[in-house]
Amino acid sequence: MSGTLRIAGAVRGPSPSERPAGDTSRKYVSVDHLGRAHAVGRRKRAVARVWVWESEDPDAPQVTVNGQSVSQFFGGHWDLRYAALSPFFKTQTAGLYSVMSTVRGGGRSGQAEALRLGIATALQGLNFDLRPTLKSAGFLTRDRRQRERKKPGQAGARKKFAWVKR
Asked: What is the model's pTM?
């Protein structure tokens, strides 16, 4: 055995059995004094910062992305709109929550999926009972695939220049 002394919870924090009863701390989610859950979602090069709170008016919940409505931000791409708001549809909470978000980097598809991860994580922070539904749908899992870099001496990441015999 090495000469190092291991201290329980020194690196990772307390284990679930060491947490006090009733501790509802959630990873990656913070709820401010106004009741807004804040989370960050990432996909490819896109980063979405999301704030979700219970809507005062269930008939007209607001979902804004960079100061625009979702339909304005994603334009005619209904599939991207649906992808971004799918956590609400899957958990049947559409209209119950309002969302304000800022999205930077990446393309529209990456931004929509980053927004989806951020909304799902924030929803989980507000209502932990939604976690099994969100988890089974795969909305809480970060897709870590990134663009592969271009290699020197090649046309692209995988594509080669045409081989010339002479």
From this structure: 0.78
Evaluated on CA atoms 104, 107, 94, 140, the torsion sign reads: negative
Q: Please state, in angstroms and as integers, the Cα–Cα distance from residue 70 to each residue in 57, 78, 103, 104, 149, following that order.
A: 18, 10, 12, 15, 32
Phi/psi at 109 (5° precision) = -65, -45
Burial pattern 42-69, b for ≥16 Cβ within 10 A else e, equals bbbebbbbbbbbebeeeeebebbbeeee
| Cα three-residue angle 14-18-20, rounded to 5 degrees | 105
The model's pLDDT over 15-69, given as tens digits with 9 standing for 90+, comes to 555 555 545 555 567 788 888 899 999 999 999 999 999 888 767 778 899 999 9
Question: Which of 47, 22, 52 is closest to 35 using CA atoms?
Answer: 52
Asked if 119 and 50 touch (Cβ cutoff 8 Å), the reply is: yes
Spatial distance between the Cα atoms of 11 and 23, rounded to a whole number of angstroms: 19
Q: What is the DSSP letter of 162?
A: P
Domains and CATH numbers, the chain: 46-136 (3.30.230.10)
